[in-house]
Write a structure and sequence with these properties.
The protein is of the alpha+beta class and 169 residues long. The chain has a single domain, classed as Roll (Thiol Ester Dehydrase, Chain A), CATH 3.10.129.10. 32% of the residues lie in helices and 32% in strands. The chain is built from two helices and five strands; from the N terminus they run βαββββα. Strands 1-3-4-5-2 form a five-stranded antiparallel sheet. The radius of gyration is 18 Å and the shape is globular.
């Protein structure tokens, strides 16, 4: 079965919500865990738009908290698929704050997530290829390949350590 390629713009997702007191720490800033939760949701939606399949989160790379977001500000998340592999894909999620009264926007977080497409039994299924049309899209896909290689190497080293630990016990 051949899957039709899809553009990064086909997966584009934007979520906006106001930061409420129950989302915040005692200093009045949004909790990092809340931001991570929203990043996972925005990333999943973008990947669902690309694959139209069930997905699970496999990895989070490069999550950085650059600026805080205050109670009362809006949090804006923008996600789009940056690379598609055989059964997995990477999504970039940018997070911005927007002052409700000022309209000032700041980039507050950036993350790359990997999702795996699965069927109802949990088996991996192929994902559609990503149609890269611009230099920026090709650069993002090359960067994603490097992150993937590093992630797979780290996974291999982890498995090797686990094997040594279980063999030596």
């Amino acid at each position: 079965m051949s899957l039709s390629p899809r553009r990064p713009s086909d997966s584009y997702t934007e979520m906006v919500q106001v930061v409420l007191p129950n989302d915040a720490n005692p200093l009045g800033f949004i909790l990092g865990g809340t931001v991570m939760h929203l990043i996972d949701i925005a990333g999943a939606i973008a990947c669902h738009r690309h694959t139209r399949s069930l997905l699970v989160t496999a990895a989070v790379d490069g999550l950085q908290f650059l600026n805080s977001i205050n109670v009362g500000d809006m949090i804006i998340l923008r996600a789009r698929v940056t690379a598609a592999f055989q059964t997995s894909l990477e999504v970039e999620v940018e997070v911005f704050s927007e002052g409700t009264l000022t309209g000032e926007r700041k980039l507050t977080s950036l993350a790359y997530l990997t999702f795996v497409a699965i069927d109802r039994a949990g088996g991996r299924v192929p994902v559609p290829p990503l149609l890269l049309e611009t230099d920026e899209e090709r650069e993002k896909a090359r960067d994603a390949e490097q992150r993937r290689a590093a992630r797979l190497e780290a996974k291999r080293r982890f498995a090797e350590r686990q094997t040594l630990r279980s063999g030596g016990a």
